[in-house]
Prior knowledge:
Blueprint: H1 3-14, E1 27-28, E2 31-32, H2 39-49, H3 58-66, E3 71-74, H4 83-91, E4 95-99, H5 103-111, H6 115-118, E5 121-124, H7 130-141, E6 147-150, H8 158-167, E7 169-174, H9 194-200, E8 206-210, H10 215-225, E9 230-233, E10 241-247, H11 251-264, E11 268-272, H12 276-288, E12 293-296, H13 302-313, E13 319-322, E14 335-340, H14 347-354, E15 364-370, H15 374-385, H16 389-400, E16 407-411, H17 413-420, H18 424-436, E17 441-442, E18 446-454, H19 459-462, H20 464-473, E19 481-484, H21 485-492, H22 496-508, E20 512-525, H23 530-559, H24 564-571, H25 588-592, H26 608-620, H27 628-636, H28 659-671, E21 675-678, E22 684-687, H29 689-697
Amino acid sequence: MSRFSDFIRSVASSAAEPAEGAGQLPAAPNAPTDPPRNPALEEQLKSFFGYEGFRPGQQAVIESVMLGQSVFAIMPTGAGKSLCYQLPALLMEKTTFVVSPLIALMRDQVDGLPEAVQKHATVLNSSLESDELERRLAGVRSGQYKLVYAAPERLRQMPFLHALRAAGVSAFVIDEAHCISAWGHDFRPDYLFIGNALDFLGKPPVLAMTATATTEVQREVATYLGRQLRTANFGTFRPNLRLESRVLKNNEEKMRELVRLCQEAGGTGIVYVSSRRHAEQLAGLLRRHRVRARHYHAGMESEERSAAQDDFMDDRYRVMVATVAFGMGVDKSDVRFVIHFSLPHSLENYYQEAGRAGRDGKLSRCVLLSTPSDKGNLTRWMKSERVSIANLRDTYRAIAESVPTDGAGTVRDDDLQRETQLDETRVRVAISLLEKAGMLSRRLDLPTTVTIKPRDAGAAQSDPRFAEFMSAARLRVNQSLPVNAVELAKRVGIPAAEIEGLLLQWQDSGWLYYRGSGRAMFLERPRATREMRALLDRLIARYEQEQIERIDAMASYARGQNCLHGTIAQHFGNRPIGSCGVCDVCVPDRKARKAAPAPTPTAQTLSKSETRMVILKAVASLPYPLGRTGITRLLKGSIASSVKGDRSRYFGALSGETKSEVETAIRELLDAGYLKREGDEYPLLYLTEKGTAKLKAG
């Protein structure tokens, strides 16, 4: 008997298979319990990965996967989700396919595998050169790899599906499965094609995995996948995470609290911010207060991002100030604190990011800093970023230029972005909403150009359809023909949706060489009806309402009026937590430590002329020139000022004025010719002769 068969028998003997569609796996307080200890499974764990034992819940999921069951595993960040499919992949007969949303996450997963396991895994993504991609596709087709990672976009490409089907799929893994839900916090439209891909691949067992899924999202995922999923919900409560929420008066107090927390906290930490500008500014602020900090965001060059990540992983810097671009796949177990300087877009986002603290199980802090204005700022951002009815009209109109009514055609993603002035994500969300309303149907993507070279003259005699194709396409043996895919389909009388699949089959038979280059969306556009438009209006209304509700839930958590762990558990439909005993709502002495912010300079009331004279004196006495923002911070006594009170006696001299009032006074001095600005990218302020004379005159 084969190694696989022996192993399956040992698994089956230790865990009786439940009836099809049986709901929950066995549950303990907030999570399923593991089945009895299975020495055979533990031996394989140690042999491949070097681990002595499983983390809670891993064995229950692994055994279900080995038995060919479809499972929805909801496991908190740091619970070891990846092992739940990596170990079975090495033990099952065919390929385990993992669909994952981020290239960096896939790469990190494979790089993190033990060396002996890495040779059985591969990643297919857009960063690969075409020849390397072809080589790996051939390896997938031949069954060379036990573990294959790819982005969801790859599932819309027939050559990839064709290779997977040839290899056979033992398990289809959906990482970050919440991305399927159109109403979830991180919707990825290409995830909606997973159901079609499963049908094409013969409906293999599914392992859907996420750290964050509400009850509604769980139902929607199961609906889209078209099957019942046995739910293994491990809950959200992690007692080693001290959740803290601090409401501060304004941004200045937030910065002071951030500096204090980073100085006070031991170990390494992550500070999450909402913008690239904030990441750079706050990292600089922390460094000025003797905290070893670096910034990280998607606008940095790839080499710079890699260097920043390596510095953090190797403890050369203690704090990483970053946008959400940092964190997915960054497996650093000893992060002792995660601070959110900006209000996250949803509780799902917040807990996924906060959960990167304390993966080693040791006590760690998760602190949310907010001000009363943050909810309004987040709401304004949501309105500016949402997909509107106008965006949908623009997208539909742009598609209609290439796709006839009651017909089909190809449209390039970048062309739509250019025509609509929308980014890639919003274009794809718009298309998915138009699909939901029935106004579009997106099929498998088509290559822009196909290159065909017939190899076998005798094949035409054995297959009439191939003979018709050769004649209609005017092909000759050993002569290459590059042609547009849609035009070829019309010429030979084969539906465009079927042409690439046939070419791949004939290539497998050795009759021709085929290669596709470039990819475009293949869309069908039925005639729009009044009912479709009404449904689209309802979908947009729900889309907007879901966004508002997510912001409301996040703002409610930030107010910190109830147990924070309990608030999160309730949000995700987990068992209620009355009092967790570890958040700053449930522990009175920690709540009392929401101390008054660090003192700011004493405010003084000055006349308009006195205010302007203070500004001129401050500029004249600076140790080095500053720009308008720098001068404002100095005069307001901001913790973000690069010049402190030991270097300028005007530090905090205008703390009684609002930031807007100080900026207005500076602008008036510039307009009146008392100050001038010099420099292109970062202009600095200097006194003019007129300003110097004003100071001398007193």
